Amino acid sequence: MSELLEKGAARTRWIRSRMPLLAAARREFAERQPFAGRRIGMSLHLEPKTAVLLEVLAAGGAEVVATGNHGSTQDDIVALLRSTGMTVFGARDDTIEQHMSNVASVIEAKPDILLDNGADLAAGVVASGHAESVVGGTEETTSGGIRLRDELAGQVPFPVIVINDSMLKAIGENRHGVGQSVVESVMRITNLMIPGRRFVVAGYGWCGRGIAQYLRAFGGKVAVAEVDELKAFEAALDGYRVGDLAQLAEWGEFFITATGAPNVIGPDVIARLQGGAILANAGHFPWEIDTAHLRAAASAVSQLDAAIERFDLPDGREITLLAEGRMVNLAGREPKGNSLEAMDLGFLLQALSLERVATAAAGLVPGAQPVPRDLERLIARRFLDALGADR
Ligand code: NAI
């Protein structure tokens, strides 16, 4: 066994053992063979939890052709998946051009089911004229769902179940998975104390609610900045201080953005931060903190640790930025991402939605659509059982 393969196998063992919902799906799929004779094309982060999902699909009879996301592919996991006979393209150090060519290779393999991320595969099969042979697919992200309903509207002749539109995923993954992992990452990267420290969370959507909740659970003092009045109202009744970001800038010591919107922490907010303020982002795009402005305004920039940079401003203030403003829960040494249980839930949604498109596509409409309600209820019941919630 190669060193890389051994590492991938060892890192996946614990994770597989703590994903009971996927373990049950694996047993059921081995019996039902919902993907017999089907080729599933995948574009999703190639990390240990995804490997467990792919094993489940393969147990259901699928031939798997896969690639990862740019910059996040874990080479030991690629080695592990290849050792099981899957076709996997990509490596950690791929350039963006290599990544695009990996996505093209998945499309050229003419998959009949798509497990997509950001609608790259759906757009690719439409552009290359392979769409007719696809029976259906799933889409993991909000941004992919928007693309399917907008740019690709009317062009996708097969059903695509948008996993991110599910309430189960919003609660299990965005609120509790991201909430826990963002706070864990901030602690791991900075090694600072949370209790008694003043935090400002920008955005009180699914992720922001979780981040605020877990910071408070550790004893942090938390304020919320939210542009939607109803969510600001909810934050206030949940017991948080609520205000404008510009106003909270002077109060906060630690700022975490989770909005999906650009330049939430822009020049006006940066101008009002106290010296020593720490900035981090949890949103998908690295644009929520205006890092270009911070860089241009700084008289000196120094790297203090793997994911910690200090910006010295000419007026004497020093501002700290974590993970270059990229998703903080995927950064730093040994990033873990969302909890195993949150991904067990999210990937069971994936697995059963893929089974639905493989076996009952005729009962679904073409294009983007939510996860069927019966699947959500089934998965919620299974999650409660696995948790032992009644005990
Ligand atoms: P959401 O739509 O539920 O919440 C976003 C909230 O931000 C909304 O309530 C909106 O009103 C608010 N907002 C927008 N602009 C704002 C501004 N300028 N100031 C203050 N609030 C503002 O979305 P969700 O699910 O919470 O996702 C947020 C971001 O996190 C997205 O970019 C999403 O892709 C990303 N995400 C990150 C994950 C991770 O692992 N780090 C995992 C899942 C989602």
Automatic annotation (TrEMBL):
Gene3D superfamilies: Adenosylhomocysteinase-like, NAD(P)-binding Rossmann-like Domain. It comes from the Bacteria. This is Adenosylhomocysteinase. Its EC number is 3.3.1.1. Its cofactor is NAD(+). One of its GO terms (cellular component) is cytosol. It comes from Agromyces tardus. Belongs to the adenosylhomocysteinase family. Keywords: Hydrolase, NAD, One-carbon metabolism. GO terms for molecular function: adenosylhomocysteinase activity. Residues 174-335 form the S-adenosyl-L-homocysteine hydrolase NAD binding domain. GO terms for biological process: one-carbon metabolic process; S-adenosylmethionine cycle.
